[in-house]
Design a protein that fits this description.
This protein is an alpha+beta fold. The chain has helices at residues 37-50, 67-85, 136-148, 162-181; strands spanning 6-12, 16-23, 30-33, 53-60, 94-101, 104-111, 117-121, 128-129, 132-133, 151-158.
């Protein structure tokens, strides 16, 4: 019997009402409604390049701004990933990827370590892309990494177009996570000499 690795999370606060469903071994099928068009686009790209099936529904206080919605989706998605990974037996654990997007280049490296950490260097960005505040990329990544329990390093090496830079980050994250969460039959148990992640 094939193991289905998926997680689902519902999270409601005074600021957001969110449901997230994630299947790791999918085909990139998505249904995403965050209330922020550019962020929907980024989550679609993350799922497509990671080959994750992803559903995100969010009703948030975007009349204030997008901060609560983006951060809380990161929290819920991180929790869903942690659930989907289960006992982490047989996973590759580490993944990294360089992603070129026209004139921009981004690098993502991650460790499904159980030790949450974020190092983010996005360089200079335009303040807004459509209705999306570019500062929220770091907020999303931090919330996601800390709730998933992953060590995450993200760097935009260069580029001039902010849309391309953020897009390269989300695509690279999808690829790196697909590698790290991938199963390898040669790995017996949890991929750690400590015996636990």
């Amino acid at each position: 019997m094939i193991e289905v690795r998926k997680g689902s999370v519902s999270r409601r606060t005074a600021e957001t009402d969110i449901s997230v469903g994630l299947e790791l071994d999918g085909t990139g099928k998505t249904e995403i409604h965050s209330g922020i068009g550019f962020f929907d686009h980024m989550l679609n790209l993350f799922a497509a390049h990671g080959l994750f099936d992803l559903e995100v529904q969010c009703k948030g206080d975007i009349e204030v701004d997008g901060h609560h919605s983006v951060e809380d989706i990161g929290i819920a998605l991180g929790d869903a990933l942690k659930e989907a990974l289960g006992d982490k037996k047989g996973i590759a654990r580490y993944g990294s990827f360089y992603l070129p997007m026209d004139e921009s280049l981004a690098f993502v490296a991650l460790d499904i370590s159980g030790r949450p950490f974020l190092v983010y260097d996005g360089g200079e960005m335009a303040p807004m892309i459509g209705g999306y505040d570019t500062e929220l990329t770091e907020e999303f990544l931090r919330a996601f990494a800390f709730h998933a329990g992953i060590t995450l390093h993200v760097k935009v090496l260069y580029g001039t177009n902010s849309h391309h830079k953020v897009e390269a980050v989300f695509k690279a994250l999808g690829h790196a996570l697909r590698i790290a969460a991938g199963k390898d039959d040669r790995i017996q148990g949890v991929p750690s000499t400590k015996g636990i992640l």
